[in-house]
Amino acid sequence: MANKTLKTKQKSLASEIVSTIETKLSEAGEATKKMKKSIEKSADKLAKKLAKLMHKAEKKAAKPTKKAKKTATKAKKKLVKAEQKVEQTAAKAVETVAKTATTAAAKATKPTPKPATAKTTPARSPRTTQAKPATTSTPAPAEPVADNA
Q1: Does pTM top 0.90 for this prediction?
Q2: What is the DSSP string of 101-115?
Q3: By C-alpha distance, which of 21, 13, 73, 3 is closest to 45?
Q4: Cβ distance 31 to 9 under 8 Å?
C-alpha cells in the first residue's frame, strides 16, 4: 500500500512540475514536441527522487528514536521488577498470615490455665522466730519398752 501512495504522490508531483515549467515556457515562446517530451521525462525523474525523499522523511518521523526506545525498554524492565516485588510482598504476607494462623490454632488447642480465683484469706503476719531453750548435754530418759511376750 505504501508503494501505491508513493506512486500517486510521484505522479501528482510530476504533473505539477510539468505544468509550472510549461507555463514559464509559454511566456518565453512556443515549445516544440521534443522539448515537451524532455520536460516530462525530467519532471518524472525529479518527482521520483522527491517522492523517495519525502517518504524517507515520513518514515523517519514515524519511527521512534533510539532514546525513546531506550526509555521504553527501561520502563518495561521497571514494570517487571515492580510486579516481581509485588509478588514477593504478597508471598511474605501470606507466609506471615499462615504463621499467625498456626500459632493461634496451637494456642487454641492448648488448655488455657484457669485464672486463680481470689480467696479471701486474712493476711499472714510474718513469722517470728522463737528463742529455743538451751539444751543440756544429758539426754532425756528413754521410755521403757515393755515386752508383751
Answers
A1: no
A2: HHHHHHHHHSPPPPP
A3: 13
A4: no
